[in-house]
Amino acid sequence: MIRATLKDRYSNECPGEIVKFNTDLGTFANTAQNSFATTDEYGIASVRFTPGLLAGAATIKASANNDTLNTQIIFTISSDDVQSMDFTQEEAIELNVAETGGVSSAILRVKLRDINYNLVDRPFDVRFRIMNTNVPTGANLNGHSPANDWVTVTSNGGEAQVSVNAGTGSGVLRIQAECTNDAGMTITANKPNVIIHAGLPA
Predict the structure, then answer these.
(1) Are 7 and 14 in contact (CB under 8 A)?
(2) Chain segment 175-198, per-residue pLDDT in tens
(3) Which of 13, 57, 61, 172 could disulfide-link to 43, CB 3.0 to 4.6 Å?
(4) 124-179: pLDDT as tens digits
């Protein structure tokens, strides 16, 4: 509930006056971004505010007396729990085996999203793993060994990232990311197309 108090120059409450509310994010009870309310006996006008589907900074303005009286409040609508997760790169990532002159490492990034598909603000532990039964020789995540152990990083601003590195073996890596949300559910995302190309014939 959003409230605005209307007083005269002597700090007396002003009942029965119309106050106009505006917001640039979310809506009021009438599902619009502007609403009108009449002050009660204590000079207070109230409207119900709904955050809506987007996270961000909301600016709510209240005006009265033909817009000659104005005030505003700014607050943050945050995203709370993880409901889905996805890798930012849908296309295949192509690497070359190490020490062959090509690109041999890349950054893999996942986005953590709430039920409304907003990025989740709070940090979560995200676990990455190479899922291959036989991992190409030397391939790893963040330089970690053994290659198919879980590597844990903490998300920041709704994103978590890990470095995927080629070794001396070629092949296709299947990488999974997962995290556990507040409800105890395991949220996963899969990246099946990290390709490590062999070098030139010796």
Answers:
(1) yes
(2) 999 999 988 889 999 999 999 998
(3) 13
(4) 999 999 999 899 999 999 999 887 899 999 999 999 999 999 999 999 999 999 99
What is the C-alpha separation between 93 and 96, in angstroms, rounded? 10
pTM: 0.66
CB 25 within 8 A of CB 72: no
Neighbours of 32 (CB within 10 A): 10
In a domain, 202, yes or no: no
Residue length of the chain: 202
Q: Are residues 40 and 94 in the same domain?
A: no
Please identify, among 77, 94, 120, the residue that sits at the C-terminal boundary of a domain: 77
Among the candidates 24, 51, 77, a domain finishes at 77
